[in-house]
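Researcher: We plan to redesign the surface later, but first we want a full-length starting point. Tokens attached.
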């Protein structure tokens, strides 16, 4: 067993939350010979003592760990078959059909695009009215 493996389970070992006796013995042996893991284990133990001292009246009824019972419930829930609700498949099909029908209806009943102006007759440029021209010999208007 190496230090990386020990670090993964050290907190469970310190909190007495491991069930496998061989794993517990392997952790105990490693901590006994490894100074770094021993320091880490002692640090975790002192943290557990401090955390326990902050709440003298525990809020749970069991003095031992809750992890085994919680782990059993998790395993049970993971093993139970998960049946989808009976309305799931046809509800998705119905929603897709309604969306497709609405899309087809909008495509069939579409009008001219509102961004395009309606067609109009071509407009010619206005012509300025002719002004009378005066000859240089006559001064009358």
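Model: Full-length starting sequence:
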């Amino acid at each position: 067993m190496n230090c990386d493996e020990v670090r993964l389970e050290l907190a469970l070992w310190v909190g007495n939350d491991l069930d496998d006796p061989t794993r517990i013995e392997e952790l105990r042996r490693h901590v006994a010979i490894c100074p770094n893991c021993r320091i880490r284990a002692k640090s975790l133990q002192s943290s557990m003592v401090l955390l326990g001292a902050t709440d003298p009246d525990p809020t749970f009824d069991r003095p031992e760990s809750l992890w085994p019972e919680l782990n059993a419930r998790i395993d049970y829930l993971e093993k139970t078959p998960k049946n989808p609700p009976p309305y799931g498949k046809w509800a998705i099909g119905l929603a897709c059909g309604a969306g497709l029908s609405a899309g087809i209806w909008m495509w069939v009943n579409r009008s001219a695009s509102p961004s395009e102006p309606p067609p109009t007759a071509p407009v010619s440029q206005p012509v300025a009215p002719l002004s009378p021209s005066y000859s240089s010999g006559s001064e009358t208007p």
